[in-house]
Amino acid sequence: MKLSKLAQASVLLGAATLSFSGFSAQETKVEKVVDAGEKITQSANQSQQRVDRISDQIQSKLQQFKTVNKEIDGLNVYNKQMQTQIDNQLKELQQLAVSMEQVSVIERQVSPLMARMIDTLAQFVELDVPFLPQERSQRIAHLRKTLERADVSVAEKFRQVLEAYQVEVDYGRTIEAYTGLQQVNGQELDVDFLRIGRVSFVYRSRDGQQMGVWDQASKSWQELGAEYRVDITKALRIARKQLTPDLIVVPVAQNSAE
């Protein structure tokens, strides 16, 4: 059966309409798929951002953890060092406690020793050549007085005693000149004393006319002749640093040991 042209046109139009409707439906489905994909992509981006933030936080916490661990290790080492020092200080305190207990014992032993040393020094000065008698006796008296003082430490007392001994030792190797009074033929004269170590102790009157030398054997003064006047005057000037050291001739009295 043949259709008229109008019928054919109607069939074609219907087919086109159906075809267009099917195409529109497919396009709608594609748009929905694209929208869903975009939403999934956005969700994935948001999830990735959250993951990145969490990762950054984890890295920051991890770094803080490592830093704290290093500080803890350093503190452990420091604590060990401090503990070692504390242990050593405790040992030192124990040693100091023992030493303090021994100090009282040492003081009880040192004090009598110093007293004997002062007595020995006094006897030595009494038996020695009689130069600077007042100065030396005052030094010994000062030592005795210091020994009785409670406000002076034992160490300081012992130091002063040793210093006095050192002064006496130095007298034996120095030359010295000083002025003083001397009994000469029943008269008290103002004289110059000259000490050369302990080997020669002489005096000379201010006018240079009278001279004498100490004789340790007889514990007395012996008169000197005029032949010594020049050398004694020269020696006095050397002792006062008025002349440079030079060769001099002075009398040497023989002591009792010789």
Automatic annotation (TrEMBL):
Q: Name one Pfam family in it.
A: DUF3450
List the keywords (alphabetical). Answer: Coiled coil, Signal
Q: Which residues form the signal peptide?
A: 1-24
Which residues fall in a coiled-coil region? 44-99
The record ties this protein, via InterPro entries, to: UCP028069 (IPR016866)
Name this protein carries in UniProt: DUF3450 domain-containing protein
Q: Which organism is it from?
A: Thalassotalea marina
